[in-house]
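Justification of computing resources. Each target in the renewal requires a structure prediction run like the one illustrated here; the chain below, 481 residues long, is used simply to show the kind of job we budget for.
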Amino acid sequence: MSEFITTYTGKHFKPTDPDPELIDIPDIAHALSLICRGNGHVKTFWSVGQHCICCAKEAAARGLSDRMVLACLLHDASECYMSDVPSPFKKTLPEYQEQEAYLLHLIYEKFLGSDLTAQEQAQLEEIDHVMLWYDLDGLLEKQDGEPPKLHIELDYTVEPFAKVEAEYIRIFEKYCRHNTLRSARRHDMMRFRKTDGGGAEMKKRTGLLLMCALLAALLLSGCSGQKRAEYRADVQSGVSYLQSLETIDPDTVTQKLRQMRLEKLQAERAAREQALLDDIDTVWQEFSDAVILGDSRAVGFSYYSFLDASRVLASSGERIDAIDGHIEDLKKLDPAYIFLCYGINDLGWYGSAQDYADTLLEKIRLLRRELPEAVIVVSSILPAYEPAVSREKLWLQIPDYTAAVQAMCEENGVLFADNTQLSEDYADLWQPDGIHLTVSGYNKWVSYLCTHVPYSKNNPYQAGSTYYLSDDMKNLLNDIP
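Resulting structure tokens:
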């Protein structure tokens, strides 16, 4: 008999000896969206995931902290790994209760930075009990007495599992980022406390701070007592420097100004990218006037309810030769942006990577003729991982296809979204088949589609890209080749 369970993402997890490194939000979100509330004794399906989502929304509606919203979202996460037991039976299983409490402790430690305080636990239990009253009332039988106060609207409509899973992850990612720094600081302090050298390290840091403070005090006192002659010397030195600039070659000055402008541009790009990555909901809003064309990977954008199905013209096995058949639908939708997410079924279909790139260019020209106002963005082919690569060697051709397509796009003024860094940074967000993405993977992919499209003076991409430029920045760059 195996000592571990195999999770949705393929991890081997031991519920009796849990490893915090293996505790994974995609596993939790997926499993809880499929586990029925009340051990199945309800009039209609209502998942533990939906219950947790409602608890989190109630905490947010009450104005509780982001940490408490996350706690409510995660309070039943242990059920992902050890299921649940009806309360009357659970009371007779002290070892189970102990194991459940320990696993939940690890989950809170990992995602909140620490276990809940007594006050936080009380807030959580109060929300959980209120939600239980409404769950029983709406899913089983009408409850007696006055309904407890609730700050959100409840709708017990059966939702697709994938939609619940996606919403769970979105809420987690939205509120988790506010706790990351605090958790990191706490773990850093714990490291100092637990290691033998922690005290010495803290003393060392304290000494450095004292030295810095002393040095600052000396500098300040020197400035306050500066003699007039020294002051005049400093002023004269500054004047001399300004005069020396007059002798510099104008081309050199222009080059420096260009460099400063480029640095300003890079800062604007970075700020835009961080804003999008910090708020995934904003990223999806950027796609409200976009259409995605592609294969089974693109299907996930609608399958997981990120985008309306009418705006995802994709199907399993589809290749770029299917673009012609989507023209009429595209004209009806009249999108501002068209994202082409093809490639996995085109591998081996053409004589070479260059043949594929040439055919793709023909399709892009067709789109430009039929929808001249739409901005077209080509997504690089996402890689495949094991076990897919062992089964099909065509996957190994992806880098060649990517290089050919990127060169074609650069030569013809087509916007190209390079997902190379995405696959390197987030290889763990692929599903067990090594081909398709998890829900979290789609959040990252859409961020890359928004933020990794380079700016081109001749074909500037508008709102929706990190590299979107304000009018002021465009004017500043007019004289840059």
